[in-house]
């Protein structure tokens, strides 16, 4: 990457977009506000003529768009991912409005890749997809008609990111080295394994344990060293439990 | 408590105040902004004539002040405690300026007790005291002369709390039931015990492990149910390790 402008570090991730026209319109919306990093998770049709037509000159963004097989691939390396959603959920993460969400993302984008994640046109993001994000961003809308077009939602968020730039200097620096998506996913797998081997979690009836843990650690914005410490404790515990199982044989 | 006004839920905690005059001036500063809950941790002299004189009519606050033996007692039952400090520290918690810190406290004070913690006049808060708080609040000041009087610091924070009241309706509600100081201290003790029994932590050379864990979970603003889950996992792990030790006998 040539420049270190915070907007360069913001990925716009469209999960399973159905209409190629929306992909083009998204590229255009991004370019108007200075964003350039587009990730497409399993798009129904891409590349496509409709996408090119609606991009109206933002072809550079369209041409450099990365097509991913799943959300994990699109979020790899990010330290903060925001699920943009219209409906608040039961066990949802921290909810920010568009303005405060943009500020939260920008604060991290000074140093690390971050992501704005948009769901499919008809049904939005799945619960599993939201659980891979650390925050939820809500675009305020008319409660009687809140159905924002996909590219319009991208436009509002891109606008708020641009508007937030002058405030960046006032934000406190991010302390420590942030853990990224991949580190944190490994932590969750490790925690789940120990929860099972200790007998706390029944893998046949996991309930919402891991969802709760994801929600907790999402709020904390984990640092690399913290993940290392937590995994160190888990490894020590695992070794003890393992040696016990062996001693029973 | 008769009323549920958020300012009623904000404790002003003075740790080891040396000058009784400052206690009186603090009571007065609090009353001017509508605060009324004063906690004194091990004051050098109290009650005292100087305190009464400087309180200038805020005697109700002085008379109902609670004298505590240590900071744990003063923070008992709170869900968020802010260490007001002039110096940023090495492994410090999240740092807020006075305005944003007041907002953070008010958001929780709609439902739960919170605390503003001020250190002793000469040397401020100790590292141990700061580690019992979840956030650090910094009052911006002239870098060439940042020595705010204790009661003046209380005045600025009380003012910001009052100024933040109209914004309260815009803040998102606090999700879940917040864990309080006592729950969280028990979690730390449990985590430390398992870190030792698993062999991860050498109690003779603890380094900064628990300080790091305090910092992590402070940022997360733990909920009661999350503490219960974490302690459940720790208990399950502990039982396994214990039965292993027994099986070796």
TrEMBL record, chains A, B:
Sorted keywords for this record are:
Cytoplasm, Methyltransferase, S-adenosyl-L-methionine, Transferase, tRNA processing
Q: EC number(s) in its UniProt entry?
A: 2.1.1.200
The family database entries (CDD domains) matched by this protein are listed as:
SpoU-like_TrmJ
Q: Which Pfam families match?
A: SpoU_methylase
Which InterPro entries does the entry mention? Alpha/beta_knot_MTases, RNA_MeTrfase_TrmJ/LasT, SpoU_MeTrfase, tRNA_m1G_MTases_N
Q: Does the keyword Ligase apply?
A: no
**What's the catalysed reaction?**
uridine(32) in tRNA + S-adenosyl-L-methionine = 2'-O-methyluridine(32) in tRNA + S-adenosyl-L-homocysteine + H(+); cytidine(32) in tRNA + S-adenosyl-L-methionine = 2'-O-methylcytidine(32) in tRNA + S-adenosyl-L-homocysteine + H(+)
Superkingdom in the source lineage: Bacteria
GO annotation, biological process: tRNA nucleoside ribose methylation
> Which segments constitute the tRNA/rRNA methyltransferase SpoU type domain?
10-159
EC primary class: transferase
Q: Where in the cell is it found?
A: Cytoplasm
Q: Provide a GO CC annotation, any one.
A: cytosol
Which family does the record claim for this protein? Belongs to the class IV-like SAM-binding methyltransferase superfamily. RNA methyltransferase TrmH family.
UniProt function note? Catalyzes the formation of 2'O-methylated cytidine (Cm32) or 2'O-methylated uridine (Um32) at position 32 in tRNA.
Its subunit composition reads: Homodimer.
Q: What is this protein called?
A: tRNA (cytidine/uridine-2'-O-)-methyltransferase TrmJ
Q: What is the lineage of its organism?
A: Bacteria, Pseudomonadati, Pseudomonadota, Betaproteobacteria, Nitrosomonadales
